[in-house]
Write a structure and sequence with these properties.
The chain has 264 residues and is an alpha/beta fold. The protein has a single domain (40-257), classed as Aldolase class I (TIM Barrel, Alpha-Beta Barrel). It has helices at 40-49, 61-73, 86-96, 115-122, 136-145, 156-168, 186-195, 212-216, 232-237, 240-262, and strands at residues 53-56, 78-82, 106-110, 128-130, 149-150, 152-153, 175-178, 200-203, 225-226. Helix 2 crosses helix 10 (240-262) and helix 4 packs parallel to helix 5. Mean pLDDT is 87; it is low at 1-37.
Length: 264
């Protein structure tokens, strides 16, 4: 194992002010903004405290709104809509923006691969954008608007490249997506987290119930991401009791992981 420093304080301030199109800082209840106008730290804190950051493919708007209601009731703060395909994700997000569920949780749009993707998504003012790999062009678009951006990394060099690119723009990296964790060892991920204190990682590709604790007990690993935690069929069939039961099961696992970390 690499002999790196342990993970440091994961709640340091992040310098990413988020502004609406008219240039005013947003201050609605679902987006608690610090006195210095920073919004991204609230997102980071929410993700750190969440058992998972669920993702979902574009589907019926009513289904997604009902899912948002259940997530809110069960204390899950965010949902990422995968842009697969992009046009469907944008259509769904445009309609969600008119619903009360827009303000119940934080909504992100994922699979941002190009500057054009990011620009189109930003028109709908989501709460964050996610990409399957780091893109300087997506970063440029999000940095200009102040939108929180969560790129994916896989290697030590990936993380360093993101750090350098953010630093060139005067931004601080606080949260990254670790993808895919398939094929990585627990020893490797522990070393990665230890070498980059102050950054937390959301693993995905693929974290499931069976290996949730394997990854979540690593210091520096926070809310795993993925669509498999809550089966798509449950959502489309409206089996909300099953969805609630699964979310509560995941929360129980998260509490077990937290107790394990506290004893280390």
């Amino acid at each position: 194992m690499l002999n790196c420093d342990s993970v440091g304080n994961s709640r340091a301030t992040i310098a990413v002010p988020v502004r609406s199109k008219n240039g005013m800082l947003r201050s609605d209840p679902v987006h608690p903004i610090a006195a210095d106008g920073q919004l991204a730290e609230a997102l980071v804190t929410a993700v750190i405290e969440a058992p998972i950051l669920p993702t979902v493919y574009p589907t019926e708007v009513e289904t997604l709104c009902r899912y948002a209601d259940v997530l809110h009731d069960e204390g899950y703060p965010a949902l990422e809509i995968l842009a697969r395909p992009l046009d469907q994700a944008l259509t769904v997000m445009r309609e969600i923006a008119r619903r009360p569920q827009r303000n119940k949780i934080r909504w992100g749009i994922g699979t941002m691969r190009t500057a054009a993707d990011a620009s189109a998504a930003l028109e709908l003012q989501p709460d964050f954008l996610v990409s399957p790999a780091f893109s300087r062009r997506v970063l440029q678009v999000t940095a200009q608007s102040g939108m929180p951006y969560i790129p994916a990394v896989h290697t030590f060099q990936d993380v360093q490249n993101v750090l350098d690119a953010f630093d060139e723009l005067g931004l601080t990296v606080r949260l990254l997506k670790l993808c895919p964790v398939f094929g990585l060892t627990r020893q490797y991920v522990t070393s990665l987290c230890g070498c980059f204190p102050g950054i937390v990682f959301c693993p995905t590709g693929e974290v499931e119930l069976d290996n949730y604790l394997h990854w979540k007990k690593i210091p520096g690993i926070v809310a795993p991401m993925g669509s498999g935690f809550v089966p798509r069929l449950w959502l489309e069939n409206g089996d909300w009791p099953a969805v609630r039961a699964r979310l509560r099961q995941i929360r129980s696992l998260a509490e077990t992981a937290a107790l394990s970390l506290a004893s280390q």
